[in-house]
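not sure who needs this but someone in the group chat was asking about DUF4352 domain-containing protein from Candidatus Ornithomonoglobus merdipullorum so here u go. i didnt clean anything up, its just raw.
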Amino acid sequence: MRKIFSIAVAALLAASLAGCVSNSEYEALRKENELLREAADSEDVSSETPATNDSETQTGSSTQEYGIGEPITIQTDHGDYSVAVLSASKSRELNEDGNYTLIVSYEIENISYDYSDQSDQFSMPWSNSRNAIIVSDEDRNILEYYDIAGPKEVHTPKNVPIGYKEQGSYAYFPVTPNVYPENVDVQVCKDAMPVGIVTVPVVD
């Protein structure tokens, strides 16, 4: 568009230099050209300004941070429940591979989740922590979930009635065997998408 205006200006100036227009007509054309040039400049600036994309904004936004013991509410079509991350500790016993694991403990509360409302017997996703809780170290390495028979500290909570709470825990492999990070980030997820994140120090 700007090129078109430039060509029009050049053509009008050429015509005026050739004596095809009078002085008054030239002044009128000059003012009109200035207005066209200003309009072209403002149009170029607006076209160079990137449009805001809601999905990009959402993707770039960080997951909300929570404190230790602070409930993170998960909303579903069948009701709500909350998860509070309590601690991260070193296991006291070796696992079947001869290594120590990292134990992440949490508490769930059934706020309004109705199990009888599902024909497919869907329940809160505590039988598979890979969909419910993701743990990473300070270098953002995702720790591998230990889904074999783990140490005695590991406890998968049962489905609890509305208004009740139950504690549970999962075991994870440190990136380097038996070398624990100082802190871990525990992401509580819904359908494998983070809802909240808690930074937890690893204790003995």
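also The CA atoms of residues 56 and 152 lie 44 Å apart. if thats useful
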